[in-house]
Amino acid sequence: MTAMRKIQGLLAGFSAFVLCACQPTYNWRDVRFEGTDIQAQLPCKPDRTQREVTIAETAVSLQVAGCEAAGGMWVLMTARLPASVDAAQVLQGWQVATWRTLQAQTPQSQAWSAPKALPGAVRVQAQGLQANGQPTQAQGLWVAWPQGSAVQWVNAMVYQPKIAGDAADTFFESIRQP
Length: 178
Description:
By secondary structure, the chain is an alpha+beta fold. 25% of the residues lie in helices and 44% in strands. It starts with a helix and ends in a 5-residue tail after the last helix.
């Protein structure tokens, strides 16, 4: 009987291990935004919100999807701006505001390339501080696409104590306008 209990205990332990192993750190989900062609993937089930904001002195409806995974925050934002707005200037202004809020030290940027994207797309990473004063790593992507007589602007952000580069790459590379 003792040997049978040991075997049952081992099987129960193995079953628990298998169940835990089947729960991935990242559970990638497709995300789309109403009224746009923008597609992306987030590593968890996103919460969504929409609000009116002013960008480049223009009132726009900002759509946001975000979630928490692997100890970090993953956020995707998009807004449609009139074609008369300088997309590169908007992208740069939003970056400056983001890094200022994070009190980021020396953001490092690299040009970003996406099919059909307007010039000025960039991926940036920096060290900064969360609202509670805790240090965080941040990576962001700013990109815009022409959409009819407007420009569809997208900002994606990852905030984690230590960003897993491959997961951030998967997130940023999933953002597209077919």
